[in-house]
Design goal:
Helices cover 47% and strands 14% of the residues. The protein is of the alpha/beta class. It has 2 domains: 50-215, Rossmann fold (3-Layer(aba) Sandwich); 243-346, Helicase, Ruva Protein, domain 3 (Orthogonal Bundle). The longest helix is centred in the first third of the chain and has 17 residues, at 15-31. The protein starts with a helix and ends with a helix.
Length: 346
């Protein structure tokens, strides 16, 4: 069933606010036209992986950060680099390794004998889009240095605090097949990421297109800069104005609470499988993600389908499994599916 067409929330609001909501919807329809332009340019380079591109846009518009987990060669680096080219912003790629130091990421103070004073040498974090490649290969002190930049949008070097440019987006990647020589991210660190997206291999027809694109004689078509960084900053403000009904807010709260107290939602058998549920940050990010998703669909209001579209990526790294769940080979995705299929949809 197409919820976008049948949801009662898609109908006009009561007469007292219908004019306001209609005007908001028209304004967002016009302001979100660049989404189609970005998608068109991304498709010139990225074959398949539409979900990854969609979630990158959601994180960007919701002013969040994104973590990608997938096998090597699935266009993770290419995706954010292409997005940076399309939006015309600065891009930095940092390869996380066990010998990486915080100064290699944020910068350091350098003494100048000629001037007899210290000057700041800024690191690669001072860019708009940051690719933290294989983030779990760096020790905790480097991960914590990235934490301040992600949460506070600032970096402290010596006695001075420096603001980071806007828009700012961190995309971290992790390789799921290699655990040797890695430093697992603690829950407090992963909770700072708005979304965690798990990538799969492309389909057969997509892989044939990838082969043709990368082995053909004709050069790859360059992407065009279709939007200014200030437009992204303005769009982030519009995303927060997207209308969300109280019933949708309650739906989000019920989903998150079902991960904390499953027995209250007829999910008592999950109590022994969940060690901890989603934090309040999960509720905030699910609401913002749903608004950003609605914006990408050029709507000025949120419907339940928007919440369900971002819910797995918001909760995937915020639910802890017990030893019993791991012994029974029960995944977080299965628990999220159970919750979404049980919590009543408004």
């Amino acid at each position: 069933m197409d919820m976008e067409q049948t949801s009662p929330l898609a109908a006009p609001a009561p007469s007292s606010t219908s004019d306001t909501l209609r005007a908001l919807n028209e304004r967002i329809q016009q302001a979100s036209s660049f989404v189609d332009l970005i998608d068109r340019e991304m498709q010139k380079v990225i074959v398949g992986q539409q979900d990854m591109v969609q979630k990158l846009l959601v994180a960007l518009l919701a002013d969040g950060h994104i973590m990608l987990e997938g096998m090597p060669g699935l266009a993770k680096t290419l995706a954010i680099k292409t997005l940076a080219d399309v939006v015309d912003v600065g891009f930095s790629r940092v390869q996380f390794t066990p010998d990486l130091l915080p100064a290699d990421l944020v910068g350091t103070m350098i003494y100048s004998p000629r001037n007899e004073e210290f000057t700041v040498k800024k690191g690669p974090i001072f860019s708009n889009f940051i690719l933290a490649d294989e983030i779990n290969r760096a020790p905790a002190k480097v991960q914590s240095a990235l934490l301040e930049a992600m949460q506070e949008r600032q970096v402290t070097i010596g006695p001075t605090t420096h603001k980071l440019p806007e828009p700012f987006l961190v995309m971290a990647t992790m390789n799921p097949i290699e655990q040797e020589g890695t430093y697992p991210l603690p829950e407090a660190q992963t909770d700072r990421f708005m979304l965690k997206v798990v990538l799969d291999y492309p389909r057969k027809e997509e892989e044939r297109a990838i082969i043709r694109q990368n082995t053909g004689a004709s050069p790859q078509v360059p992407v065009q800069k279709v939007i200014h960084p200030k437009d992204i900053v303005n769009a982030r403000q519009l995303v927060r104005e997207v209308y969300m009904d109280e019933k949708i807010e309650q739906y989000i709260v019920d989903i998150v609470y079902a991960t904390r107290k499953p027995a209250d939602y007829r999910l008592g058998d999950l109590s022994s499988l969940i060690s901890f549920g989603g934090s309040p940050r999960a509720s905030i990010n699910m609401a913002l993600g749903a608004k950003a998703y609605a914006f990408t669909k050029r709507r000025g209001y949120v419907i339940p389908e928007d919440v369900r579209a971002v819910c797995p990526d918001v909760l995937r790294h915020r639910i802890g499994l017990t030893y019993e769940a791991e012994a029974e080979n029960i995944s977080v995705n299965e628990i999220i599916d159970r919750v979404l299929n049980t919590v009543e949809v408004p």
